[in-house]
Fold these 2 entries.
Entry 1:
Amino acid sequence: NAGVMQNPRHLVRRRGQEARLRCSPMKGHSHVYWYRQLPEEGLKFMVYLQKENIIDESGMPKERFSAEFPKEGPSILRIQQVVRGDSAAYFCASSTFGAPSYNEQFFGPGTRLTVL
Amino acid sequence: GIQVEQSPPDLILQEGANSTLRCNFSDSVNNLQWFHQNPWGQLINLFYIPSGTKQNGRLSATTVATERYSLLYISSSQTTDSGVYFCATPNNDMRFGAGTRLTVKP
């Protein structure tokens, strides 16, 4: 049973370019969460999605960041016009159930974004 | 939102020693998870423990929800236990503690 998959594992972008991060949840999971981890810090929640719906995006910057989880295919976190401060590890997690009966979340290996 | 505090922030042990890591949360929670982030950055699920005690090999965890804390016990530590241990409250916006960085020396 494959776990949560993320790609790419490493991504290098120059300032002003776009970054697209992909996440395929575990089989049978329909709830996806994105987190950001800055160096030497804990994980910070960004956004929670179900298929075709954004449930909670309270942790996501209002500008340049967007997320989707289409009916078919992986969830995508998109960062437009990247800046050096966007350099971080971005983790995706998935769960069987979300609101209101939150259960265990399982994490992917992360995408390490470096902005030059 | 819920605040999650972990202690100690850093811990250095000799191989074979035991340790207790603590997680305090500011409000009642329905669920709690413990993770190990290894030196390669991977997050590994250790326990999903809203209340009570669970054991898995050398690791065990106890959550006392009414008193708003959880404890992670590591016995007979090994160098492969090194890394950062996080507790977190699964919710819409899962809140992570800042972590305990554990270094186990041979």
Entry 2:
Amino acid sequence: AQSVTQLGSHVSVSEGALVLLRCNYSSSVPPYLFWYVQYPNQGLQLLLKYTSAATLVKGINGFEAEFKKSETSFHLTKPSAHMSDAAEYFCAVSAGGSSASKIIFGSGTRLSIRP
Amino acid sequence: GAVVSQHPSWVICKSGTSVKIECRSLDFQATTMFWYRQFPKQSLMLMATSNEGSKATYEQGVEKDKFLINHASLTLSTLTVTSAHPEDSSFYICSARPWTGGNEQFFGPGTRLTVL
């Protein structure tokens, strides 16, 4: 079974500051890991995904995440926050590349940006 | 590419009526589509997985007779909320996985259902 835990339901940073959103996963098989962003009343947009290739994954909008097996973590970072980054972020896990695999979402972290 | 649409984007209905929500993959074929519901300030909860031409697989606790799913073609899945009640009010989001494989899902913009 797979699960993800997002630490911190709400993170607030100043514009230009480092963004760090934490995600820990649990999986009985090598996982696929995802970060999605959701703006109010909209669907989800994929930021980046890890699929067992490079452990440092670069995504859109300057975000990146590092897969650390020893820590079972997949934290999302961005060096300099922008006002437009304010949104809800979801970490998700799936059991590999099977087309039947479900994606399990974390509880989400709301990112606020202070001017 | 990889665009998924939902219709309608919002709907308000009276208690006891049925509501149909459509999910379409616009520029790819999807053998598998997923339906989620999301309550305010909460995460997405998977309701069911639908495969083209076969019966949907429902998650534990989801009433299959209340939430009817039809995946009639490789580009269209529908969710019908039957005899809707106020507690069914929620944000419903679908996603589609391309038939070409891999594990990525592309999400629709969601449908806001309000039952009066």
